[in-house]
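Tat pathway signal sequence domain protein (Saccharothrix xinjiangensis), 909 aa
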Amino acid sequence: MISRRNLILTAAAVGTAAQVGRAAGPAHASPAATPWPATASGALEDGVQLRWLEGGAPRQLAAGSTWGVPWPKGTVPEGQSFALRTAAGRQVPVQSWATAYWPDGSLKWTAHAVGAEVPPAEQYVLAAGTPAAPVAAVAVRDGRDEVEVSTGVIRCAIPKKGDRLVRTLVRGDREIARNGRLVCLRQGEPGDDEGGSVKSERFTGRVEAVVVEQSGPVRAVVKVEGRHRHGGRSWLPFTVRLYFYAGSDGIRAVHTFVFDGDEEKDFVRGLGIRFEVPMRDEPHNRHVRFAGPGDGVLSEAVRGITGLRRDPGAAVRQAQVAGQATPPTATWDTRVSSRLHLVPAFGDYSLRQLTADGFQIRKRTKAGHAWIPVDAGGRAGGLGYVGGPGGGFAFGMRDFWQLHPTQLDVRGAAGAAAEVTVWLWSPEAGPMDLRFYHDGLGQDTYPEQLEGLEITYEDHEPGFGTPHGIARTTELVFWALGATPAAARVGEMARAVRTPPLIVTSPAHLHAAGVFGDWSPVDRSTPAKARIEDRLDFLFEHHRGQVEQRSWYGFWDYGDIMHTYDPDRHVWRYDVGGYAWANSELSPDLWLWYHYLRTGKAEAFRFAEAMTRHTGEVDVYHLGKWQDLGTRHGVQHWADSAKQLRISTAGYRRFHYFLTADERTGDLMRDLVDADRTFLVLDPLRKIRTGPYEPDPHALAVSTGTDWSGLALAWLTEWERGGDPGAREKLLNGMRTIAAMPNGFAQGSGLYDLDTGAFAPARPAVNVGSLGAVFGLVEVCSELIDLTGDEAFTRAWLQYCRLYNGTAAEQQAETGQSWGSLNLRQAHSRLTAYAAAKLGDAGLAARAWEEFDTGHAGYPATREFTSARVEGPNVLKPVDEASFVSTNASSQYGLAAIQCLALVGDRLT
């Protein structure tokens, strides 16, 4: 099998990107695809309607915008070119490339990018045609020692080796910033006692590889990889992608680092990105800006000339406050101009956001002197600026307060060059402490650990609660500006950083394209359907509201939600073993993404996006012995000893990748193509298995539920993307051999061949668990059946769907024995609905709705979906409580409702 590490990227632009093509061949030979434009099956004859996710027309982009569009099978041939226009007919420069293919070779997903030249409009149309060319195309020069990118407005030089991420950033003939580098502060102990001092070390990011992934004409992407180094040590591998868009003076950066230290000895005290900014204007014409809450902006000058005992003149004061060049000092009141050297110059500014609800801004003249408090507030906008009328540097971090502790620093602005640092982890917050949260409680043997599961639901095992290999991704934006921006533009830039404008298509088009299996847009056409829609909205809004009310924020936590509620304390069980963070348990990721697909709501997209960023990075190991495995739910995201494919599954990332074309998310899915090798390293059944475990690569014990679904989703995604052909072969071999088992999916597991992806022939057996289908198996089987039409696999899956909630007699008759007392019957009502729809069986359809309404292990139809306000002194702060809600039940109720409505909604009375 071809290694994923040697793949040619398939999402590359071809030529000028006027045509969409592939770098690797399609999964099957491509017959002539139906010419586009399409029929009413999905692509409108005059194009696909697009809009901004948040509505309206943004005044400022975060450099540019990239989005994805799906197409019905057989409607858009490979090589099709695309043009973009506003609804009023104005042409918009666009770059397009393929991100997925149907098995017949036609395009399934395409990605599109616009730069600064996109005219403000509320709606756009994407159609067949020749794309308009940008006035100034992105140009990339890939040299021996560095990559240089020009957007037509700015030029950026990126060294291929050394300790600089960016050598220089130039606008026109003026260098705006230089020597961009990654910085890390490390200390060898937490420093949590009252005595002594802790020594820290400064590490600098050392670039090891630079790759141009896209080269224009509208969008260019440069990937930089390396490690942080100090002395003889190299650690904390990083990947930074820099995004450039035609006509833009901004650069988007996506920064990822992996923790590969020893949590008992390596404490990250600070982690950030730093630039030098040449300061050429006079100190009174040097400006500092920080975005505050909402549209608030702090506007300061390095040497202020307002509020003095003597007045330099109204025109002088007004110009400085506005960030404009002041009149020449010769025109000032001489009582001021002659004494300017006696006005302190404040060269250092710092905004620190140490919690989700509080930031503070301070300034000082220079190092060695006291800080002066400036102001404070709740939630900063995460954007800063330093510069003058001749140009300056703006810097911003997305989810600034959500990912606290964060910090924005300006140092030395009174000198020849300021130093700007965006701290992803503030050095003033205390060190990053990733140690396990308890001492093991004497659970040294498997029997003791199984006892622990019985009381706290925590699956503990010494040495398994390690963060070694987890990661975090942060999005940033940098601007090389020609002058100090007006306060209104600072606010616009801050909004673009906080919520990057994204172009989307409608739920109707997404559904008509036939992507992501069984779902349908919101339908309130009958009282029964409307009631379910109301409940789906309630559950979404309740969980979304809990993020704010329970403050589920922080560097390692933001994006996740809690697992189970504790009504006695009126809190979620944040401190109780396996009941704390959800870590994708029972697929909240899938539920949230399907909620977005069918509603098109911006808040649904942003909620799901934040979860994808978290669960794909923090809850999964990206290096080390458990690479490609995720961690089960617990008090810390990495704490539980159950390391499983059901958490790392690519199925939770596919939505974000195809809707945004985000390369980092694409990396995460491609990394999982070889995830089956984890069975050689770790026995998932080690605590209950009898006898020794000696893994045989040609006969590995792999379940046909949670294990195979995770593998299948990675292989399916790789197949769609036109990548490693071995992924397709393993997927098809798995389908064929599962179907060949005497009882198909009811066998529960089989002996799996690592080389081929096939299961060995087996004797009849039944081993059905309640979790097998609820981590993406339902979704992947539906997609695979639609894609391949494999009759044997379809029969095997339909048998499982019919029998899971069937009677013991029915199970006995077909598989030779009863499946026992199974849990999650409401969740599995969607399996019954699938069988009903495929077989045209009205009896099964009625049974599906009965199972759904009964609500076993979920929410019955008789349940009132309401919450109650709880206030002090019973709680720390007022909260809305729905004590019946659990994330497991919400996720599976949501998925069951969505899929039953799509499959047998016409049978709902």
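The radius of gyration is 29 Å. The domain at 139-303+344-434+466-498 is CATH 2.70.98.60 (Beta-galactosidase; Chain A, domain 5). ok done for today
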